[in-house]
Amino acid sequence: MPYSRGSSTNIIVGAAALFVADTTLTPSTLETFSTEVSFRETLTNDAAYTNVGYTMNGLELQFQPDFGEVQVDQILDVARLYKQGMQVNLATAFAEATLENLLVALAYSDSKLTGNKNASTGQTLNLSAGDIGDVPVERGIVAVGPGSGDPLTFEDKERIYAAYRALSIENVTVSAKRDEPSMFEVSFRLLPEDTSGSYGKIIDRTYGQS
Q: Could you tell me how far CA 164 lies from the centroid of its own chain?
């Protein structure tokens, strides 16, 4: 095979559409792909998922392994590293400052949000310190963005990021400023799913083949 510098079609540029599930996900509960349409359309038409709308600064997955060290007398550096922990985080910013998005960012249950913002009584998000035994709400997250491959062909490429158990753990700021938009920066801690021990999966797929 002749030498090649690389393939520019494998460079991925562009943001992803972010969907939040009502509950946690498992490998078997993730929606079935349609051969004809983007997975964005599939999730949009599923009442179990909510599109958070506009985001800022894209989506970032961070993998943080934790390694232990074995030191011996005969060398000044460590003789061996072993993996003793793992942490995975997903970070983004919700540019649409709705109470529904704030509820997700605060890891509140749906019962904290009441009313209708289009009614005279309005919509209310109850900010509660919680009670003994309260636990933050885990939700599934699915993001659909551009994939790798030649975008000029008849086939459409996309990359899907699925997180089975996501929990918001960082500080969330709600602001109203003259020179900045209101948005919610949120960092989700991903937890492994019970049966498979998997955090989720990343899928490259092609749809709409002619």
A: 9
Q: Tell me which DSSP letter residue 55 carries.
A: E
Q: 156: which 2 tokens?
A: 């459409």
CA gap 140, 163 in Å, rounded: 6
**CB burial class (10 A; 0-12, 13-18, 19+) of residue 72?**
exposed
- Residue-wise pLDDT for 138-153, tens only, equals 999 999 998 887 766 6
- Closest alpha carbon to 139 in 160, 117, 169: 169
Distance CA 202, CA 159 (A): 7
Q: For residue 59, with 0-12 CB atoms within 10 Å meaning exposed, 13-18 middle and 19 or more buried, which class applies?
A: middle
Residue for token pair 């800022």: 56
pLDDT band at 167 (very low <50, low <70, confident <90, very high): very high
- pLDDT tens for 2-38 read 888 888 888 888 889 999 998 999 988 888 888 888 9
- Please, are residues 158 and 207 in contact by the beta-carbon 8 Å criterion? yes
